[in-house]
């Protein structure tokens, strides 16, 4: 599940915990989509994600795309070992560092 | 935590051999003797993979796959069908129902493990 | 539960041992031809399978040790590591060690003994040295854009894989990551680029549909087929493009056209993945229209997956598969049971035939004759099932010859011929030891050191030949060396010393040479590590005789020695010759029968007096079976008697019997414990009428008789002597 914190400076902070898999992505998208605002960066904390699959990574990519489309940045704050492992597998760790971009 | 595999086959020896190989590789096993038995054992717990025979009493493998796909907790779970060479039509039926993976019987444990590792890792 | 694990484990043990044996053979092949890539492949597969299956049974020691071996072989296959004799020696030692690890499993011992553990650690260290020195950097090769791009790319070891997953893939239970993880078990993902060009913007995207694509630079020594198989389960839900390491730039150009992204975008993905260099395709693009063969582009198959440099590995794999599927693994016990049952069937059939022969109805006789013929065919067939070529046994000695000759500082080549000759598995299993002994003998004492050979005008490299062929219901195995030959004088001297040769007698060369099969007879001057450990040639001979076989030896001084072993093809059945003595029946193995003749009553009287007859000018000693076995004469004298001339090696004797009943194929029943010690009988058989016939063991009988006659050289006749011996024996 996800907790959405609106930051006073305008940004958003998401904390996702538990499963970030095909079984939860639909629900997570529904929870997170409304909090996307045109102003302010997004910070996502994945330190509590104990399971993630490619559908989870795909959702993160879609979220990132939506944020950058508005000219903002998405930063990954924390990453659990499962998340780090998955991002390494598809070589996307740098994308969520906030520096590099997708081709 | 070990991942869980459901093994559905009416032959207890097949279940045992498959079970032994999978356990050795580090998986937890749930055994069921046919589709109906399997459905009764799927109570919402996490199952990472299902391996099902096609020809079984009470509920055959194809029906089982169709039923599993209706269960929210298992609709994305990979399913391997155990088919024989002569059951190509069954294989296609299974694939249409959403079980895209298969192992042709008879198989060596190593072949089965290769098929499993295409879908999940321990 | 346990039973199953057990049977599966037994299968594994057999499998692993087979594979280890194959690996050993492969290594020996590579020693002569280090560039044989098929053999390298099979070597690798062997290690791979042993490791893989061991994993199923949680046999961690095997997995962990074999892993290192597999790794090293992987590098050999990549051609990043060259095969030399040191490497082969190491790998041979490793296969030995894995064999030991398998033995630990087979014997259910808890673990290796301390020595073996030490050996393992040493081997691991040696394996490590190979790993450290191997360059692993993927960037060691540099590509250039030149016109002949295929030549340049040949140095490349890396595959390119483009995956574009379909939206349904999650709903079909698949996770694209699982395929990436699986790829990592087949090789190494050097670089991967994830693309989401197919993904709609967040509000429209369905998180349960898959929009992912991957471009992968993949280093693997696997075949195209193996890599392609990784995607079998996702074939419907994913566009898979695999370019082999040999793919030309035009193939890359074709791939760009296949990918859903725009050409520029797709090219950027390939460049990013490292499979293409920036601008590398420019030359191809500008070149394509002016290529010598303008149709090249059109000929490219629609799917680059089909684009392969060679289809040979695929074909061999298929061939292999079809060959494998023609075999069924059957438990030896089941086969044994079948052969036993067929044996009973033969006996029952003989009974029916006998009854039918009393019956006036010819139809019944015809019917039983037809059944008998089928039974015979069935028996042949059943026995053939247990026949295996002797080649496997022979080839095991390649290793022995290699190791032993290295140890002795000799250069010896083993030549094998007649490996396809078949014989019963039970016989094969029991000739390994005698063969080993004879071969070691030849290596150790027969073939000289290179310097000695050269001094004697021979080639420095010694030759040992193993040969097999069928001969009159027997298999003959020859062990031929081109060494120094036996020392006739020394053997004769020793024979005299030990009273094996009567003083003043001048035995034939062959008799002299065959003295070395006498118990305790050894002429070896030095006891080496290899042979001469006190287990002499007499043991070899005893083992061979126990198999109803014979052994003899031929030697020429300075030219070499030939040892010839003659063995029955099977132990289960015997082509016999049935004779009657009084009320009793005996079966004489047919291969021992030379001829039969009538003994007229006049000749009989004379023969009885002197104990021999004149067989075409040759003295043929007679053995009166009535006397020898103390059988009551039924209507003595009145009946005509017959002589069956039997032979073994160069010895001949006439067995005097009452009745000749003809050829008789019979299934041997062991005599059982109670009569096991009885000499002169090879077993028993039940006749069709229910009577029991004893099977005569002619070699044992002849040996017995010649021992008896030697012991009583002063007596002129042997018959009365034999009688007393036989009575003692029957107690």
Give the oligomer, counting copies of the same chain as homo and different chains as hetero.
Answer: heterotrimer
Q: According to CATH, what is the topology of chain A?
A: Transcription Regulator spoIIAA
Largest sheet of chain B: 5 strands, parallel
Level-2 CATH architecture of chain B: 3-Layer(aba) Sandwich
Determine the number of helices of chain A (DSSP H or I, runs of at least 4 residues). 3
Average pLDDT of chain B works out at 87
| Alpha-carbon Rg of chain B, integer | 13 Å
- How many distinct beta strands of chain A? 4
Question: How does the overall form of chain B come out from the CA principal axes?
Answer: globular
Strand element count of chain B: 5
Mean pLDDT of chain A: 85
Output the structural class of chain A. alpha/beta
Description:
Chain A has 103 residues and is of the alpha/beta class. Chain A has helices spanning 25-32, 54-69, 81-89; strands at 2-6, 12-20, 42-52, 74-79. A four-stranded mixed β-sheet of chain A has the order 1-2-3-4, covered by helices on one side. Chain A is globular. The N and C termini of chain A lie far apart (30 Å). By secondary structure, chain B is α/β, with parallel strands linked by helices. Chain B has a five-stranded parallel β-sheet, with helices on both faces. In chain B, β4 (79-84), α4 and β5 (101-105) form a beta-alpha-beta unit. The longest helix of chain B has 13 residues, at 12-24. The longest helix of chain C is centred in the first third of the chain and has 31 residues, at 2-32. Chain C is elongated. In chain C, a hairpin with a 5-residue loop joins β20 (681-686) and β21 (692-696). In chain C, α2 packs antiparallel against α3 and α14 packs antiparallel against α15. In chain C, the strands form five sheets. Chain C has a five-stranded mixed β-sheet with strand order 6-8-9-11-10, covered by helices on one side. A five-stranded mixed β-sheet of chain C has the order 19-12-13-21-20. A five-stranded mixed β-sheet of chain C has the order 14-17-18-16-15. Chains in contact: A-C, B-C. At the B-C interface, α1 and α5 of B face α1, α2 and α7 of C.
């Amino acid at each position: 599940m996800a907790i959405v914190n609106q930051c006073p400076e305008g940004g958003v902070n998401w904390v996702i915990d538990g499963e970030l898999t095909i079984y939860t992505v639909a629900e997570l998208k529904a929870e997170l989509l409304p909090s996307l605002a045109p102003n302010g960066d997004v910070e996502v904390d994945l330190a509590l994600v104990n399971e993630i699959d490619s559908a989870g990574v795909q959702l993160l990519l879609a979220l990132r795309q939506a944020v950058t489309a508005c000219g903002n940045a998405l930063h990954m704050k924390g990453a659990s070992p499962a998340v780090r492992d998955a991002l390494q597998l598809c070589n996307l760790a740098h994308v969520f560092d906030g520096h590099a971009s997708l081709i | 935590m070990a991942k869980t595999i459901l093994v559905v086959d009416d032959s207890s020896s097949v279940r045992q051999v498959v079970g032994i190989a999978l356990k050795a590789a580090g998986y937890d096993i749930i055994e069921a003797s046919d589709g109906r038995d399997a459905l009764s054992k799927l109570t919402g717990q996490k199952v990472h993979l299902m391996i099902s025979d096609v020809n079984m009493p009470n509920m055959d493998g194809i029906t089982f796959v169709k039923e599993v796909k209706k269960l929210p907790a298992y609709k994305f779970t990979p399913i391997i069908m155990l088919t024989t060479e002569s059951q190509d039509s069954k294989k296609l039926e299974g694939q249409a129902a959403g079980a895209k993976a298969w192992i042709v019987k008879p198989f060596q444990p190593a072949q089965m493990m290769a098929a499993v590792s295409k879908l999940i890792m321990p | 539960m346990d039973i199953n694990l057990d049977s599966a484990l037994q299968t594994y043990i057999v499998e692993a041992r087979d594979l280890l044996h194959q690996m050993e053979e492969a290594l020996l092949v590579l020693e002569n031809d280090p560039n044989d890539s098929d053999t390298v492949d099979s070597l690798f597969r062997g290690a791979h399978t042993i490791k893989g299956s061991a994993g199923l049974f949680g046999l961690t020691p095997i997995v962990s040790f074999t892993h290192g071996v597999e790794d090293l072989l992987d590098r050999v296959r990549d051609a990043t590591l060259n095969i030399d004799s040191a490497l082969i020696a190491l790998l041979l030692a490793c296969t030995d060690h894995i064999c030991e690890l398998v033995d630990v499993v087979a014997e259910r011992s808890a673990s290796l003994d301390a020595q073996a553990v030490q050996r393992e650690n040493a081997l691991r260290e040696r394996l490590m040295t190979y790993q450290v020195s191997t360059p692993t950097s993927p960037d060691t090769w540099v590509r250039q854009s030149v016109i002949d791009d295929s030549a340049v790319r040949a140095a490349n070891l890396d595959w390119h894989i483009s995956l574009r997953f379909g939206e349904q893939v999650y709903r079909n239970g698949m996770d694209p990551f699982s395929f990436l993880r699986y790829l990592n078990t087949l090789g190494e993902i050097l670089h991967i680029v994830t693309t989401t060009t197919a993904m709609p913007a967040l509000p429209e995207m369905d998180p349960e549909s898959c929009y992912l694509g991957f471009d992968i630079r993949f280093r693997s020594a696997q075949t195209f087929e193996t890599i392609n198989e990784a995607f079998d389960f996702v074939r419907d839900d994913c566009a898979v493009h695999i370019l082999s390491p040999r793919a030309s730039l035009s193939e890359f150009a074709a791939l760009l056209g296949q990918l859903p992204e725009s050409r520029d975008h797709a090219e950027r993905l390939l460049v990013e993945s490292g499979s293409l260099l920036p601008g590398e395709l420019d030359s191809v693009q500008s070149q394509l229209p002016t290529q010598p063969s303008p149709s090249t582009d059109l000929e490219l198959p629609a799917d680059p997956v089909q684009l392969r440099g060679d289809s040979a590995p695929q074909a061999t794999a298929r061939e292999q598969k079809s060959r494998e599927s023609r075999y069924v693994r059957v438990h030896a016990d089941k086969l044994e049971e079948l052969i036993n049952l067929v044996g009973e069937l033969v006996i029952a059939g003989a009974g029916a035939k006998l009854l039918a022969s009393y019956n006036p109805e010819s139809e019944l006789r015809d019917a039983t004759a037809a059944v008998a013929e089928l039974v015979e065919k069935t028996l042949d067939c059943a026995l053939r099932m247990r026949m295996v070529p002797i080649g496997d046994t022979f080839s095991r000695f390649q290793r022995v010859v290699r190791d032993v000759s290295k140890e002795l500082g000799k250069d010896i080549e083993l030549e094998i011929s007649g490996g396809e000759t078949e014989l019963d598995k039970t016989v094969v299993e029991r000739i390994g030891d005698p063969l080993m002994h004879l071969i070691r003998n030849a290596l150790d004492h027969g073939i000289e050191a290179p310097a000695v050979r050269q001094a004697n005008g021979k080639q420095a490299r010694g030759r040992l030949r193993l040969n097999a062929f069928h001969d009159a219901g027997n298999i003959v195995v020859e062990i031929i060396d081109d060494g120094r030959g036996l020392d006739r004088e020394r053997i004769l001297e020793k024979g005299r010393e030990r009273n094996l040769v009567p003083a003043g007698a001048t035995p034939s060369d062959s008799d002299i040479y065959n003295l070395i099969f006498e118990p305790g007879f050894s002429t070896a001057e030095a006891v080496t590590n290899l042979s001469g450990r006190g287990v002499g040639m007499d043991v070899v001979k005893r083992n061979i005789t126990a198999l109803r076989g014979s052994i003899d030896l031929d030697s020429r001084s300075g030219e070499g020695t030939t040892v010839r072993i003659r063995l029955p093809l099977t132990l289960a059945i015997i082509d016999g010759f049935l004779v009657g003595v009084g009320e009793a029946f005996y079966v004489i193995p047919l291969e021992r029968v030379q001829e039969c003749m009538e003994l007229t009553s006049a000749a009989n009287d004379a023969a009885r007096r002197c104990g021999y007859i004149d067989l075409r000018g040759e003295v043929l000693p007679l053995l009166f079976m009535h006397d020898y076995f103390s059988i009551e004469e039924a209507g003595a004298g009145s009946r005509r008697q017959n002589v069956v001339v039997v032979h073994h090696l160069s010895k001949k004797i006439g067995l005097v019997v009452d009745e000749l009943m003809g050829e008789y194929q019979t299934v041997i029943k062991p005599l059982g414990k109670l009569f096991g010690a009885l000499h002169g009988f090879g077993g028993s058989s039940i006749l069709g009428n229910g009577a029991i016939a004893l099977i005569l063991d002619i070699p044992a009988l002849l040996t017995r008789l010649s021992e008896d006659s030697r012991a009583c050289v002063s007596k002129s006749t042997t018959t009365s002597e034999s009688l007393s011996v036989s009575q003692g024996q029957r107690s």
